[in-house]
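Weekly puzzle thread! Below is a chain. First person to post its structure in token form gets bragging rights.
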Amino acid sequence: MSGKNWRFRYVLAALCATTVCAQPAATNTVGVVSKIDAAERQIVLKTDAGAEVTVSLQPTASFRRVAPGENDLRNAATIAITDISAGDRVLARGKPSDDQKTVAATLVVVMSQADIAKKQAAERADWDKRGVIGLVTAVSPSDIAISVRGAGGAKSLIVTPGPNAQIRRYTPESIKFTDAKPSTLAEIKTGDQVRALGEKNEDGTKMTAQEIVSGSFRELAATILSIDAAKNEMRVNDLASKKPVILKINAESNLRKLPQPMAQMLAARNRPPEPGARGESGGRAAANPDGRGGNAEGRGGRGPGGRGGDLTQMLDRIPKMTLADLKAGDAIIVLSTVGAAPDQLTAITMLAGVEPILTRPGTQEMQLGSWSLGGGLGGDAGSP
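Winning reply:
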């Protein structure tokens, strides 16, 4: 998970809502330390927007370290400039220059990189234990119903926001978990994907959620028509609609390429059984709730899952690639948010080397079928 975590950005801002930070004409600059010069009393921050800001530390500047999640500056520890390291997350409070490239800071609040990583690991473990992900099947003013897929097939879960629940939503064209903005239950609609964290009742049919993240995503299989490396975009042919789509790639896009043996393994796992075929348990392979064939126990619903492992974690172990590793004619699977223009997408995740997965047995035809990258809220959303 990136250090640009939304929690830490807002926690740092909340800290400076106290009277300690109340300084006329002063502003907050939040970012990650990319360079520090203790002798010159300067820190270079890379902000969440990608800009670099040089923080000049005033002679009277004070330095405080807070734990991730802390929202009271009175609980901060006093530190020295030499206790700040590259990679730490910092809020600098002071007067900015006219061009916004420098800040004369009188207060620096620090969250150390190690503390943030430790808290994120704990949160990931909590999401793994108490989190669910599914497609919205019904909405009401007070709760939503989602279909959650697992080894036993799809089950319905009623999710009700608890007191002070945090509800956020991906914006159109956004591709990062940190792009999710504060939202309401009313913005969630049928067909959206939702990830929720909370406590279930005894029979697992209801959840009281402390956090809900929603989004509307599009997944397509395509073949590359042309690549424009200078613009970081590709022109691809959507295999479902047979229409061209402009696919944009940016620094946050997750580009991976499946090794051939892994692609063949996933293709075999996802392939519907022949009529009369028997599953490993000796019975006929069960059909999925959406009517498609396949062993739900082995597949975990759409895409590889269940005993086969979580695809999101699998993708993290697959080699990364760049546009230079691709050529016209290659097949890809792309996940993006649903934006305003259906023929222009920005890739959240793009997977190449997928020809074995997309090709129908005994034919040269390729289609997405029931295969899935696992949804737009995987990965980052599992580690808020």
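Puzzle host: Confirmed. Bonus trivia for everyone else. The CA atoms of residues 277 and 373 lie 26 Å apart.
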